[in-house]
Amino acid sequence: MQGKTLVIGASGQIGIELVTALRTKHGHQQVVASDIRVSESPELNDGPFEVLNVLNMDELERIVDKHNITEVYHLAAMLSATSEKNPERAWDLNMNGLFHVLDLAKHQKIKKVFWPSSIAVFGPSTPKQMTPQYTVMEPNSVYGISKLAGERWCEYYHEKFGVDVRSLRYPGLIGYKSDPGGGTTDYAVDIFHQALEKGSYQCFLSENTMLPMMMMDDAIRATISIMEAPAEQIKIRSSYNVAGCSFTPSELAQLIKEQIPEFSITYEPDFRQKIADSWPGSIDDSEARAHWNWKAAYDTTKLADTMIRELRHKKKAETLVTR
Ligand code: SER
Question: Distance between CA atoms of 163 and 158, rounded to whole angstroms?
Fold first, then answer.
């Protein structure tokens, strides 16, 4: 029997869309979604779902055995802003969750692992524009420290134990199907919801804070591509830089105004500004392009147009249902 895929942290921003994409591709029964809590999401419940705390190794192993899991997408993590508020819990979840998955792969239970890293692995001393794959990395956020450590462990498990682990340094991810939670780049999702609901937005980053971002469709495509690429094409076993587009809050606000002329924005930077200031403004993803043919499809304009169009549809449909 062919092995199944397990998505850990399936209720999160990436998980819901990834589970949908993987089930469409491989069949609903082939993809087991899991999260720490029961999910209400229709997308996750149209196939197998397990309640799983990845910190519980026995439970993880039981689920892997029960479903004959051979591939794992391990997405459960605490994001940057939440991690600053709970450093110890963030370190525990972000590191030990990864160790549990890597250890099962080391003992050959799991054949292939996807684990997301982030632009947060870079720090204030990293060159900010077109940040290269190999550069100074001195992250100063709890989240960034955990992701950089995770990258080093992924490479170590690959070199030492032959674990087939693959990873991407995601930029800020922008999507309309699921809500983000606890990230510094999340303003760029919330701004669209507020623009359509209230016509205004108070931004927690300053107007000229340039950050690398990516439309969720691109992120899902990159994730599935790196997992499907032949192993010899994956020459980097820490994590690949991947770029989408880069913009500032004020540039994004301008694009929103073109479609919602009454939209207004104010700026009230909070503790997340310091995190954003330590991250790159744009990313050089030459290695991902050369090794496994990565290329983003969305620029900032297409991203903004898609978000407004899709959220308009969604909000209209919701109004019809509640009427
Ligand atoms: N989007 C993430 C965050 O803001 C970065 O990986 O925390």
Answer: 4
